[in-house]
Specification:
The chain is mostly helical. It has one domain: Glycerol uptake facilitator protein, CATH 1.20.1080. It is 81% helix and 0% strand. The chain has helices at 3-33, 38-55, 61-64, 68-71, 77-98, 103-118, 123-142, 144-150, 155-169, 174-183, 189-226. The longest helix has 38 residues, at 189-226.
Length: 227
């Protein structure tokens, strides 16, 4: 990777974080103002961030996880850089949102959401399990542009629907969670552990389907060779 390619990679990752942050802000506002329907509408609004990421081929950590089986060990550093740049993009959105009219709604709601997650007695188990489920759905979403046309399905629905489902269910997305942590006035081992657990969960969930696909391809190739 050349210097120019690395810079472009970082910029696309930052932009990806910005879109996740904007989607997160919109989701928090919907959850706060729209009553019983707020969660569903918020999930739909959040999905637009992922749609932009897929449409413009931006670099999202949880999206890159699906490529781990084929990425190669020497390129794993890209995942770390991508996550850091994604987080920086989310941080930028949190700063701008904090100085916008939305701050009176977004900040208290973000603190409420993350405090509820951290103060749960089973926060560690919940963080890991929900992040695994989120990782699975993200992989289905980002891969939709490849499998949907082959199956005669709508690419837009394939990208958006899994995101709406995970956001509605409240599953943990390691990058999106950074928006909440930006507003949380707490720096502790618990916060660090929560972030690491969600990253690990997204990794485990994200590589599940691609690994199974590779195994299927291997078995099919072996079967053809034997024939």
């Amino acid at each position: 990777m050349t210097v120019a390619e690395f810079v472009l990679f970082c910029l696309m990752a930052v932009c990806s974080g910005v879109m996740i942050g904007i989607g997160g802000v919109a989701s928090l506002i919907a959850n706060s103002l729209l009553g019983e329907w707020g969660r569903l509408i918020g999930a739909c609004l959040f999905s637009l961030g992922i749609y932009a990421i897929v449409a413009f081929d931006m670099k999202l950590f949880t999206g890159m996880v699906a490529d781990i089986p084929k990425l190669g060990v020497k390129n794993y550093w890209q995942l770390v850089v991508c996550f850091l740049c994604n987080s920086f993009g989310v941080l930028a959105v949190s700063v701008f949102a904090n100085h916008s009219p939305a701050s009176e709604i977004v900040v208290p709601k973000a603190i409420e959401v993350i405090s509820a997650k951290l103060n749960n007695g089973e926060w560690a188990v919940r963080a890991l399990c929900s992040a695994i489920l989120c990782g699975m759905l993200i992989t289905v979403s980002v891969r939709a542009r490849y499998y949907a046309p082959q199956k005669g399905l709508s690419t837009t629905v394939g990208v958006l629907f899994p995101i709406i489902v995970f956001a509605l269910c409240g599953f943990d997305h390691s990058v999106a969670n950074m928006l909440y942590f930006c507003y949380l006035d707490e720096t502790s081992w618990r916060v660090a552990a929560y972030i690491l657990l969600t990253v690990a969960g997204n990794l485990l969930g994200g590589i599940c389907f691609p690994t199974i696909s590779l195994l299927r391809e291997y078995i099919e190739r072996k079967k053809k060779t034997e024939e």
